[in-house]
Design goal:
- The protein is mainly alpha-helical and 203 residues long.
- It has a domain of 139 residues: Orthogonal Bundle (Tetracycline Repressor, domain 2), CATH 1.10.357.10.
- The protein is 75% helix and 0% strand.
């Protein structure tokens, strides 16, 4: 019994910390990054005001944790869709379909991840201390894109992955700002094929 108590306390503490990070993500998505404070996050999570400062040394540390969570969430979505696409081999159509599904998922009004991601991107100009966290998001997603392009046969996928991410981010942002029926999949598919066809593939 005695040995279990520390684990129980740790698990309870981890749940509270996770709830605070989730609350921060929700606040960033609905009210903007500048509205994040220890008090506002604790209130959104339903905890006493002092709870946030117990788990995080600064608001910047809390925002870093929220951005890291978003990076993990977006990377998991990329990986899951590409895993499905790679079942039985990754074709040109498979890759395009997976990326279009990803854009639809990220631009969904029920998904805060991309809102927080873009909010963080824009905030770097005003808050340079967020740059490391934002760059971590970009690297994690780039690595997932590199793996997909490598599976497709792109010989040197690093630069193409950055091109693809810029394309994905652009279409996702446009879909958030101006939703279109079907997510403008025809235009996105055409753009993806044009980019894919511009790179050399290994035999």
């Amino acid at each position: 019994m005695t040995e279990d108590r520390p684990k129980t306390r740790y698990a309870r503490g981890q749940e509270r910390r996770d709830a605070l990070v989730d609350a921060a993500i929700g606040l960033i998505g609905t009210r903007g990054l500048e509205r994040v404070s220890f008090r506002s996050v604790a209130e959104a999570a339903g905890f006493p005001p002092s709870t946030t400062s117990y788990f995080f040394g600064s608001v910047g540390e809390l925002i870093d944790a929220a951005i890291t969570r978003i990076a993990e969430n977006v990377t998991a979505k990329v990986t899951a869709l590409l895993d499905v696409a790679q079942t039985g081999g990754l074709t040109r159509d498979d890759l395009a379909d997976a990326i279009m599904d990803l854009v639809s998922l990220l631009s969904s009004p029920d998904d805060d991840d991309s809102l927080v991601q873009f909010e963080a991107y824009l905030a770097v100009r005003r808050r340079p201390e967020l740059a490391d966290s934002v760059h971590r998001i970009m690297r994690m997603i780039e690595e997932a894109a590199e793996a997909a392009l490598g599976a497709f046969g792109i010989a040197e996928p690093h630069l193409p992955a950055r091109h693809f991410l810029a394309l994905i981010d652009g279409y996702t942002l446009h879909e958030i700002a101006r939703p279109t029926p079907g997510g403008n999949r025809t235009a996105l598919r055409d753009a993806l094929f044009r980019v894919l066809d511009s790179y050399d593939r290994t035999p």
